[in-house]
Design brief:
Blueprint (H helix, E strand, L loop, with lengths): L10 H8 L4 H4 L41 H8 L5 H8 L1 E3 L18 H11 L2 E3 L6 H18 L7 E4 L15 H6 L3 H16 L5 E2 L23 H16 L17 E5 L18 H8 L1 H6 L5 E4 L3 E2 L2 E2 L4 H11 L5 E3 L7 H4 L7 H12 L14 H6 L5 H17 L19 H13 L2 E5 L12 E5 L23 H8 L6 E5 L12 H9 L3 E7 L32 H10 L4 E7 L6 H6 L2 E6 L5 H9 L37 E2 L5 E2 L24 E9 L2 E2 L5 E9 L5 E11 L10 E10 L4 E8 L6 E2 L5 E2 L3 E9 L2 E10 L1
Parallel strand pairs: 1-2, 2-3, 3-4, 5-6, 6-9, 11-12, 11-13, 13-14, 14-15, 19-27
Antiparallel strand pairs: 7-8, 10-15, 16-17, 18-20, 20-23, 21-22, 21-26, 24-25, 26-27
Helix pairs in contact: 3-16, 4-5, 4-16, 8-9, 8-17, 17-22, 18-22, 19-20
Pfam families: Fn3-like, Glyco_hydro_3, Glyco_hydro_3_C
InterPro entries: Cellulose_Degrad_GH3 (IPR051915), Fn3-like (IPR026891), GH (IPR017853), Glyco_hydro_3_C (IPR002772), Glyco_hydro_3_C_sf (IPR036881), Glyco_hydro_3_N (IPR001764), Glyco_hydro_3_N_sf (IPR036962), Ig-like_fold (IPR013783)
Organism: Hohenbuehelia grisea
C-alpha cells in the first residue's frame, strides 16, 4: 500500500533517528494527503493495521516490559493527526451515559455517542459526576473496553474527577485544603491523599484534579480555602505529601515500569492566587524574582513527579498563563525537565479571545495554547482544539508541538500502566468509605483545629460542667467548603450533633439556639440565644464564612461568601453575626467563639473580648465531633495557622514573609470606649496580624532548649541540620509543631524578613521531652540574584525556632 506523502528527511536515516528521537518531529510531511493519515508506512507496521507489526512481532508500545520512552516513541508515529488531536481534547462521559440524575441507576449507554466522543475527544474523559457507583463503573468499563478493543490503536483514556479534599462522587470528605495544611502534618496529608485514591481508583478513575498550590496572599479571593496557606515552603511540603500520597502504589496488573496508580494534578500553574483586587481570574502582577522566589517554589518542590499539571486562568505580568512559554516551556520543560501532561483549566483556551484579548479567532487560541504551552484543552469552552487538524494540514500550526504534547499525554498514561489495565476493579466497593478511612478522617479533623486564644485557660471545659449553650448559624450546619458534590453534607456531623454525641453519657445539658442566619441582618433570634447563654455555664458561639457544594455554588440565586468565583470586599463577619457574639458575651457567661470558615475572619473585637477563640477551617465529615472533643479536652489542639489573620481587609496583604522594609509600624486604633488613637501605619489600625502564620495554642506548654546547628559554618553547597530539644512542661500530652525560620541578614537583593525553612510535628507526653532534628538544604538559602540565577551568597543567616511572631531560640549560621 502507498500513502501519498513526502518526508523532508531521508528514508535511509529514519531507522537511526528512531532510536533516539521522535521521528515525526524531525521528518515533517510537506504535503497533506486527502484524508491526511499522517502515518509512516515504511517501517514495521502497515497503515491498515497500525496496531500490529508487519512481521507479527509485538509492537513496542504494547510491550509492558519496554521502557516508557520506547513505548511513546513507538506509538506516536502510528497515530493519525486526528487521533493525536483527540488525545489533547477533554471528552465527557455524558457523551455515552445519562448522568444528570444522581439517583438514576440505569446501566445503559449510547453507542453513537460513545463512538463520536472517542473519535474526537477520547484522550481524557471528565467523569466528575454524582451517580450510583455501580452505574459509574459500568460507564467507565464501556468506555475503556471500547477504546482498548474496538479502536485501531487501543489507547486507554484518562478518567477524571475532583478530589481536593475527598473523592467527590460520595467519597469520604476530609477537611478543606486550608484545614489539611493547618495540621502541619505531612504524613497525615499523605495518608489522606492516599485514601482519596483508594476510593477513586477502584471505580476506574485514574486522574484527580488536585492539589492546588496557589498561595493565599490575597485573602479577598474566593479560593483561599482550596490552598495550603500563604507560605511557599509549607505549600510545597504539604503539596508534595498530597501528590506522593495520591500517586502512591501501582494499579493492579500493570507493567513493571508503571510508577503511579493515579495522576495528581498540580494546579494552577502559575501565579494564580494573587489576583488584582482579589477578583477571580484577574491579572497578577509581579516580575521574574517574585515568580521564582514565591509562586513557583511550591510547584518546583511538589510537582516534578506529578503526572499532570493544570494551567492558571489568569495572566502574569501581561502574559496569559496558558500561553506563557517562558513558564510552560523554558522553565517547566527545559529547566525542570517536566515530561508529563499539562492541561488548561476548563474553558480557558477561549479566554484568550473573550478575556485576555490576545487572540481574535479560535484558530489563534488553539495555536497559541498548543505552541506556547504544549498543553491540552479541557472542556468547558468551545473546543477550539477541534481547529487543529485543519491548521496542521494547512501548515499553520507546528506539528512538532502537536507531537510533543501528545507524547507527554502518552507518557502519563504509560506511567500508570493504563495500557495493561485501565478498568475498574471488581471489588471497588471494598475500598469506598471504609472504617479505616473514617478513622483517618477523625484524626485529620482533630489535627486541623487551631486554638487561637484561651484566656485564663477557660478551655478545655470539664464534663462536670452543668450546661453549655451552643449558639450561632454554624452550630447546626455542616460546612465542607467548595469542591464537594451535591448533598455531600448529608454525610457530615454538625457541631451540635458532635456535642450531643460526645456528651451523650454525661449530665451536661446542651442548650441550642441559632441566633441568626449567616446571610441576614435579622436579630430576631437574639433573645433566644441570649437566654440560652444565660441559662448555661458557658456559651459556644459558632460563626464564620460559608460556601456551597459544586452544584449550588454555581446556581444563580444562591448565596455564599467563599469558594470559587465568590470574592469578598471585607473579611469581617457578614450580617448579624458579630452583634450576636456581642449579645451572647454580654450575657456574662464564659464565651468561646468558633470561627468555621474557609479563610481568615477579621474581627479584632472578638480577639480582644471573648474568653477563647477556636479556628475550624471547613472541616471533614467528623468536624462537628472533633470540635466537641477539642472543647472538652478529649483531644489537645495541635493545629497551627497556615495563613495570617489581619485586623481588617484594609491592612492586607498580611502574610508573614514580607520582604524586608515592607512593614513600617506606627499603629493607631479605635479604642473600645470610642476614642480615636491616631497613628500612621495605619492611621486607626495596624498591619500586624491578629494572629500570625504558625500560631496555634495547646492545652499544655512547651519549652525549647539546646538549639544547635550542625555544622554552624557551611560552604555554599552544604546542607545543615537544626536540632532542638522540646519539653512538654504541662500536665497533658500534646503535639507541637517545631518550626524553623531563616533570615538572610545581608543579601544582594531584598529578601524576606523571615521564611519558614523546616517544620516537624511531634507528640510529647506530659513531662517528657524530644530532641527534634530538621534538615535544611543549601538551596533554601539561595536568592534569585541580579544575574537571574539561584545563588547562595556567603554571609550570616539568622535561624530561629518559634512561630512567625515568636522566637523560642535562635542561632547564627555562617556560609563561606
Ligand atoms: C438530597 O438530599 C435531600 C434531603 O436533604 C433528598 O431529598 C434528595 O433526594 C437528595 N438528593 C440526592 C440526589 O441525593
Ligand atoms: C446518542 O448520541 C448521539 C451523538 O451524540 C446523539 O445525537 C443522540 O441524540 C444520542 N441518543 C440518545 C438517546 O441520547
Ligand atoms: C466492539 O467490538 C466487539 C467485537 O467486535 C463488538 O461486539 C462490540 O459491539 C463493539 N463495541 C462497540 C461499542 O462498538
Ligand atoms: C452517599 O453515601 C451515603 C453513605 O454511605 C449513603 O447513605 C447515600 O445514600 C449515598 N448517596 C448517594 C447519592 O449515593
Ligand atoms: C492482578 O493483580 C492482583 C493483585 O494485584 C493479583 O491477585 C492477580 O493475580 C493479578 N491478575 C493477573 C491476571 O495477573
Ligand atoms: C457496598 O458494601 C457495603 C458494605 O459492605 C454494602 O452495604 C453495600 O450494599 C455495597 N454496595 C454495593 C453497591 O454493592
Ligand atoms: C441565602 O440562601 C439561603 C439558602 O441557602 C436562603 O434561605 C436565603 O434566603 C438566602 N439569603 C439571601 C439574602 O439571599
Ligand atoms: C536570640 O536569642 C537571644 C537569647 O538567647 C536574644 O537575646 C536575642 O534577642 C535573640 N535574637 C533574635 C533576633 O531573636
Amino acid at each position: 500500500m502507498k500513502v501519498p506523502m513526502v518526508f523532508v528527511c531521508k528514508a535511509s536515516k529514519m531507522q537511526k533517528l528512531l532510536a533516539y528521537t521522535l521521528l515525526s518531529v524531525l521528518c515533517l510531511p510537506t504535503l497533506a494527503s486527502e484524508n491526511f493519515l499522517d502515518v509512516r508506512d515504511d517501517l514495521h507496521f502497515t497503515l491498515e493495521a497500525r496496531q500490529a507489526n508487519k512481521d507479527g512481532s509485538l509492537p513496542i508500545y504494547k510491550n509492558p516490559k519496554a521502557s516508557i520512552d520506547a513505548r511513546v516513541k513507538d506509538l506516536l508515529p502510528r497515530m493519525t493527526v486526528e487521533e493525536k488531536v483527540a488525545q489533547l481534547i477533554q471528552g465527557d462521559m455524558n457523551g455515552w451515559m445519562s448522568l444528570n440524575d444522581p439517583l438514576d441507576n440505569t446501566k445503559a449507554f449510547n453507542e453513537t455517542g460513545l463512538k463520536e466522543m472517542m473519535r474526537l475527544k477520547g484522550g481524557s474523559i471528565w467523569a466528575g459526576y454524582l451517580v450510583p457507583w455501580e452505574k459509574f463503573v459500568f460507564g467507565v468499563e464501556v468506555g475503556q473496553r471500547y477504546l482498548m478493543e474496538n479502536t485501531t490503536l487501543g489507547i486507554p483514556a484518562l478518567i477524571q474527577s475532583e478530589g481536593l479534599h475527598g473523592f467527590t462522587n460520595n467519597g469520604t470528605i476530609f477537611p478543606s485544603p486550608i484545614g489539611l495544611a493547618a495540621s502541619f502534618d505531612v504524613d497525615l496529608v499523605s495518608q489522606v491523599a492516599s485514601a482519596i485514591s483508594d476510593e477513586a481508583e477502584g471505580l476506574g478513575i485514574n486522574h484527580i484534579f488536585a492539589p492546588v498550590l496557589d498561595l493565599s496572599r490575597e485573602l479577598r479571593w474566593g479560593r483561599v480555602e482550596e490552598n495550603f496557606g500563604e507560605d511557599p515552603y509549607l505549600t510545597g511540603e504539604i503539596g508534595h505529601a498530597f501528590v506522593t500520597g495520591l500517586q502512591s502504589g501501582k494499579r493492579r496488573n500493570v507493567s513493571s515500569t508503571a510508577i503511579a496508580r493515579m495522576a495528581a494534578t498540580c494546579k494552577h500553574f502559575a501565579a494564580f492566587g494573587s489576583p488584582q483586587g482579589g477578583l477571580n481570574l484577574a491579572q497578577v502582577s509581579g516580575g521574574e524574582r517574585e515568580l521564582r522566589t514565591t509562586f513557583l517554589k511550591p510547584f518546583d518542590r511538589a510537582c516534578l513527579e506529578s503526572l499532570t499539571i493544570m494551567t492558571a486562568y489568569s495572566s502574569y505580568d501581561g502574559v496569559p498563563a496558558i500561553a506563557n512559554d517562558h513558564i510552560l516551556i523554558d522553565i517547566l520543560r527545559k529547566e525542570w525537565g517536566y515530561k508529563y501532561w499539562v492541561v488548561s483549566d476548563a474553558g480557558s483556551v477561549d479566554l484568550l479571545i473573550t478575556l485576555h484579548g490576545t487572540c481574535s479567532t479560535r484558530e489563534c487560541a488553539a495555536k497559541t495554547t498548543l505552541e506556547k504551552g504544549l498543553s491540552g484543552e479541557m472542556g468547558g469552552g468551545t473546543y477550539t482544539y477541534l481547529t487543529l487538524p485543519d491548521q496542521i494540514k494547512a501548515g499553520t500550526v507546528s506539528k512538532q508541538a502537536l507531537d510533543q504534547t501528545v507524547g507527554y499525554m502518552l507518557r502519563t498514561k504509560f506511567a500508570m500502566g493504563l495500557f495493561e489495565n485501565p478498568y475498574p476493579y471488581k471489588d471497588w466497593n471494598s475500598t469506598l468509605r471504609t472504617a479505616a478511612a473514617k478513622e483517618l478522617l477523625h484524626t485529620t479533623d482533630r489535627e486541623s483545629i487551631v486554638l487561637l486564644e484561651n484566656r485564663n485557660n477557660i478551655l478545655p471545659l470539664k464534663k462536670s460542667i452543668g450546661s453549655i449553650a451552643v449558639i450561632g448559624p454554624h452550630a447546626d450546619r455542616v460546612s465542607f467548603g467548595d469542591y464537594v458534590f451535591f448533598n455531600a453534607t448529608l454525610n457530615g456531623v454538625t457541631p451540635l450533633g458532635g456535642f450531643k454525641q460526645l456528651l451523650a453519657d454525661t449530665s451536661v445539658k446542651v442548650n441550642y439556639a441559632e441566633g441568626s442566619k449567616l446571610w441576614s441582618n435579622d436579630q430576631s433570634g437574639f433573645p433566644d440565644a441570649v437566654s440560652a447563654a444565660q441559662s448555661s455555664d458557658a456559651a459556644i458561639v459558632l460563626v464564620g464564612t460559608w460556601s456551597l457544594d459544586q452544584t449550588l455554588l454555581w446556581t444563580p440565586g444562591t448565596n455564599a461568601t467563599t469558594g470559587e468565583h465568590v470574592d469578598v470586599a471585607d473579611l469581617g463577619l457578614v450580617g448579624a453575626q458579630l452583634d450576636l457574639v456581642k449579645a451572647v458575651k454580654a450575657a456574662g457567661k464564659p464565651t468561646i467563639v468558633v470561627f468555621v470558615s474557609g479563610k481568615p475572619v477579621a474581627e479584632p473585637w472578638i480577639q480582644a473580648n471573648t474568653d477563647a477563640v477556636i479556628q475550624q477551617f471547613y472541616p471533614g465529615e467528623l468536624g462537628g465531633l472533633a470540635l466537641a472533643e477539642i472543647i472538652f479536652g478529649d483531644v489537645n489542639p495541635s493545629g497551627k495557622l497556615p495563613v495570617s489573620f489581619p485586623h481588617d481587609v484594609g491592612t492586607t496583604p498580611v502574610f508573614y514573609n514580607y520582604l524586608k522594609g515592607s512593614r513600617p509600624l506606627d499603629p493607631g486604633a479605635v479604642l473600645d470606649n470610642g476614642n480615636l488613637k491616631f497613628g500612621h501605619q495605619y492611621v486607626l489600625s495596624t498591619p500586624v496580624p491578629l494572629w500570625s502564620f504558625g500560631h496555634g495554642l495547646s492545652y499544655t506548654t512547651f519549652q525549647y532548649s539546646g538549639l544547635t546547628l550542625s555544622p554552624s559554618t557551611v560552604g555554599r553547597n552544604n546542607d545543615f541540620t537544626v536540632t532542638v530539644t522540646v519539653r512538654n512542661t504541662g500536665a497533658v500530652s500534646g503535639k507541637e509543631v517545631v518550626q524553623v525560620y531563616l533570615t538572610d541578614i545581608l543579601a544582594s537583593v531584598v529578601t524576606p524578613n523571615q521564611e519558614l525553612v523546616g517544620f516537624q510535628k511531634v507528640e510529647i507526653p506530659a513531662g517528657g521531652s524530644k530532641t527534634v532534628s530538621i534538615k535544611v538544604k543549601s538551596e533554601q538559602l539561595a536568592v534569585w540574584s541580579l544575574s537571574n540565577k539561584w545563588v547562595v551568597e556567603p554571609g550570616q543567616f539568622l535561624i530561629k525556632v518559634g512561630t512567625s511572631d515568636q522566637t523560642f531560640a535562635n542561632a547564627t549560621l555562617t556560609v563561606n
